[in-house]
TrEMBL record:
Signal peptide: 1-17
PANTHER family: DEAMINATED GLUTATHIONE AMIDASE, NITRILASE-RELATED
Similarity field: Belongs to the carbon-nitrogen hydrolase superfamily. NIT1/NIT2 family.
UniProt cross-references to Pfam families, sorted A to Z: CN_hydrolase
Protein name, UniProt field: CN hydrolase domain-containing protein
Species classification: Bacteria, Candidatus Glassiibacteriota
Record's keyword terms, sorted: Signal
Amino acid sequence: MAAALVLIAALLSSASAADFTGGPFIAGCAQIFVTGDVQQNLEKILACIHRADSLHVRLLVFPEASLSGYGPEHFKDKPVPGQDVLDKALDRVRKAARETGIWVLAGTSRHGEDGLYNEVNLIDDTGTIRASYDKAQLTEGDATYYQPGKEISTYQAGGIKFGLEICYDIRFPEPWRIQALEGAQIILHAAQACGSSSWKIPVWEGHLRSRAAENGIWIVSCNAAGPVQMGKSYIIDPDGLVVAESNQDNEELIYGTVDLSRENIVNVKRRRTDLYRIAPLENQTP
């Protein structure tokens, strides 16, 4: 019996994540209503992961704070769930990713030593967290609850390079360009842009299409379902063209084919670096 357990442990530890270098794959956005109830959010997330599995989705993006609930929206009158509750819920998401073989980007809140952070975690198809990013650009409402992230990073995972962004980061083109210059082929963007006015929808779409076209990258951007979305969910190719788009305010799963062999880096190559330059600052605090 002991020998059998050792063998099982060895097999589990030797499991390795699949990569995205084998050709086109299907990516998806799970546009869900996010609440302040971790269990309710978790049930929706797990259902979407299993639904995505039936559609052969290999990479699934969820909204900002989709697991914990979003500070300015859901925790005005009650405390943010404790880290132990959030960790247990995230473990369930990791298990679902492992069971289905889907890479998942899930948003949550994280209790750090100096305060609360707005975080996304990139989970691979073995259930391993491959990258985490704390939201750098905070809105006025964000700053009431969250500390700003302290770095801009590009992440090597699955044989390719990812960039990660959260919601309001969309308004600032510099980090997206930095990630593209560092070799990012696809940027995953999680958002909770709801509750204000739908007049921002074309502006939101314009930002995403510009970020994709000016940097020659794929973008998978998932917003929460509302109420009153300020932007929809999109999959956008390196030419800035929409591959998949959600309906406004609806809970739904959209998906489309991503082909990373396609690139459009002519604009990046033509930059006049003799006139201007962009680079991250050491120890920069956003």
